[in-house]
Amino acid sequence: MLRPSVGYTELRHTLILSAHRVLFPTARVDDWMRRNSVESARAFIYAQDLGVNSKAVEGLLKENSWVPVANAFSERLARFGFNFFQMLVVDILHDWEIGAWKAVFIHLIRILYATDAALVNELDAR
After folding, report:
1. What CA–CA distance (Å, rounded) separates 82 from 75?
2. CA 3 to chain centre
3. Could you say which DSSP state residue 89 is in?
4. Which pLDDT value is given to residue 1?
5. CA dist 22 to 16, 55, 65, 71, Å?
6. Higher pLDDT, 51 or 9
7. CA distances from 124 to 28, 80, 121 (A)
8. What is the pLDDT of residues 100-123, one digit of tens each?
9. How far apart (Å, rounded) are the C-alpha atoms in residues 12 and 9?
10. Cα(86)–Cα(31) distance, rounded to whole angstroms?
11. Nearest to 29 by CA among 68, 87, 72
């Protein structure tokens, strides 16, 4: 059985992150608009006793799927241009619909089969 080297693993991780950025260019950004909206929503919740699912709070956050949670990284590092969303681990499967992933996986299996049918069996064994 072949074992990937450390360099191969790092390269694979880099390629996955690069592919994700190409496929999903609308990645979340911790910018002034997000921080201001979250701060305003928190003011509605804590100062005006509105619920998290109130129209005022949802009007601020729902469009971008934000939540009214303060982030320590954002509060302390935003002034330096740090985007805490970039430090989060990318999980491509959460961004793809199951049909899209299935089509890509089938295509990859066909590539393996065209290269060497034994590779499909190796994949299946894992």
Report:
1. 10
2. 28
3. P
4. 47
5. 10, 35, 21, 27
6. 51
7. 35, 47, 5
8. 778 888 898 899 889 888 888 888
9. 5
10. 12
11. 87
Give dist(CA 38, CA 21) in Å, integer: 25
Q: How many CA atoms lie within 13 A of 23 on its CB side?
A: 17
- How far the first Cα of the chain sits from its last, in Å, is 10
* Tokens 């609308």 -> residue: 26
H-helix segments, the chain: 6-23, 32-46, 55-61, 72-77, 92-95, 98-115, 117-125
d(CA 16, CA 10): 10
Place of tokens 């006793």: 49
| Exposed / middle / buried, residue 20 (Cβ in 10 Å: 0-12, 13-18, 19+) | middle
Note the pLDDT tens digit of each residue in 21-44.
666 555 778 888 999 999 999 999
Give the type of residue at 41.
A
